[in-house]
Amino acid sequence: MAKLKIGVFGAGRGMSAVHQIFDHPEAELVAVCDKYKPLLDNCRKQAEAHGLYNIKYYERFDDFFEHDMDAVICANYAHEHAKFGIRLLRSGRHIMTECLTMANMAEAVELIEAVEESGKVYSYAENYCYTPVRWEMRNLYRSGVLGKLMYAEGEYLHDCSSIWPQITYGERNHWRNIMPSTFYCTHSIGPILYMTGLRPVQVSAFETPNMPFMRKLGTSSGTLGMEIVTLENGAILKSLHFNIKSYRHSNYQINGDLGGAHDLGSGEIGVYLEKPDQNCRGERKVYKPDPIIAGTENSGHGGGDYFTTHYFIGSILGDEVAKERTIDVYQAVDMCMPGTLGYRSIVNGNQPIKLPNLRNKEERDAWRHDTFCTFPESAGDMYVSNNVQEKIDIPDEVFDEVRRRWTVGEPG
Ligand SMILES: NC(=O)c1ccc[n+]([C@@H]2O[C@H](COP(=O)([O-])OP(=O)(O)OC[C@H]3O[C@@H](n4cnc5c(N)ncnc54)[C@H](O)[C@@H]3O)[C@@H](O)[C@H]2O)c1
Fold first, then answer.
1. How far is Cα of residue 381 from the mean position of the Cα atoms in its chain?
2. Which of helix, strand or coil describes residue 161?
3. pLDDT tens for residues 248-287?
4. Class (C level, CATH) for 132-294+329-382
């Protein structure tokens, strides 16, 4: 059988998928696109070291788009996945997008409808769902031993300040500099929704002021974003993310009315289980769960990276397990919407906002033209600044210095 022809758009983070496809028995990498030529050159070098000489390399998306491909992995800018993804779906390609799903609610509606109309696979690369510990939390929750979910925490406590020059290159309008504090909520919210299968129904969001250490690197947004999300069964989820000074890198916990499971951050899970009517007399244990597939535990991000591309390809090929485990467009929108509408909550003084269920066609029209966001090209006349508490003008010299650090490989 002919192999599935895959293209990768964006050769920074996209290289994780590229490496996986190099060795894939049922898929081949046919084209890579990035407007930054040194990344394309690097990709070519690595492909040739693998004995792969037939891949085509494109600097322009429009040329890449014309290449004969069955599927595309979009690892381009985080706020432009829907824009390019919708074009690809309408041209008959399956797509997987990196994080995040959309820049605003109008794009969420348009993306969902493009997936439905095309009948193609959409898969969301939320890799934090698939580490051995978070997979075990999912299994425990779904087995029923934790009871009904009451409370959950998802905390992605990644302080990116030292790598800011390497991930923004000193570009004033890089998405990481113009996003609002709540935008990158996927790694904190996504795993909890994936474990429990519950839908978010309301968000109130909060942010810290902009911190000087991030302002010096070129961003004026609130530094730490937090969403308090109500889930469809009434449970509460606290989501916290990004540039915090913290001993821990992440924290995930789910607490039901019969017990709790905690990601201890060490590759181990802590579990507390009670039987009904045995209040506070439960069993406690700590153990290291096995990965979903043996040998994948050293793939990036705690062993989660392998599964996004693995299940995307499997879903296209009709594998039922892959189809069940991949993250579809409705779940993807659910994972991102608390951040998109969370920022509106902040702008409105932390007001609670009801989250629609965009699986229902009748709920879509209210959001179809809602382009409210901090990304000027996507927002049009609904543009809002990424700091409504304080007006901060960052001088050009800051970006010159960040660019210099990027060029010479100095940390932020
Ligand atoms: N899941 C994870 O753990 C994880 C980790 C890192 C990054 N990401 C995601 O991966 C994506 C890429 O992030 P990144 O870290 O590589 O940084 P990035 O967003 O700066 O890189 C995007 C790359 O795409 C290229 N690109 C963008 N638009 C283009 C266009 N129109 N034509 C040609 N090339 C274009 C850029 O040159 C750049 O190399 C983002 O969505 C990010 O959120 C996810």
1. 26
2. helix
3. 989 999 999 999 999 999 999 999 999 888 999 999 999 9
4. alpha beta
Pairing state between β 27-33 and 56-58: parallel
Domain range annotation of the chain: 4-127, 132-294+329-382
Beta strands 56-58 and 71-74, pairing class: unpaired
In angstroms, what is the span from residue 175 Cα to ligand 1's centroid? 10
Q: Which atom of ligand 1 is nearest to the CA of 58?
A: 33
- Please tell me the residue having the least CA distance from ligand 1 atom 34: 34
Q: Which two tokens stand for residue 267?
A: 């590759």
E-strand ranges in 169-306 read 200-207, 224-231, 236-242, 250-256, 259-263, 269-273, 283-287
Instruction: Please give the structure tokens belonging to residue 31.
Output: 């084209």
CATH entry 3.40.50.720 includes domain 4-127: yes
Q: Determine the average pLDDT of the residues in 372-377.
A: 98
- CA 76 / ligand 1 centre spacing (Å): 4
Q: Do domains 4-127 and 132-294+329-382 have the same CATH topology?
A: no
pTM of the predicted model, to two decimals? 0.97
Tokens 């229902």 label which residue?
Answer: 360
Distance, CA of 197 to chain centre:
17
From the number of C-beta atoms within 10 Å of its C-beta (0-12, 13-18, 19+), residue 393 rates as: exposed
In this structure, the residues whose C-beta lies within 6 A of any atom of ligand 1 are 10-13, 33-36, 39, 61, 75-78, 98-99, 125, 127, 167, 301
Query: 298 pLDDT band (50/70/90 cuts)?
Result: confident
Pocket test for ligand 1, best of 76, 126, 158, 173 (most atoms within 8 A of CB): 76
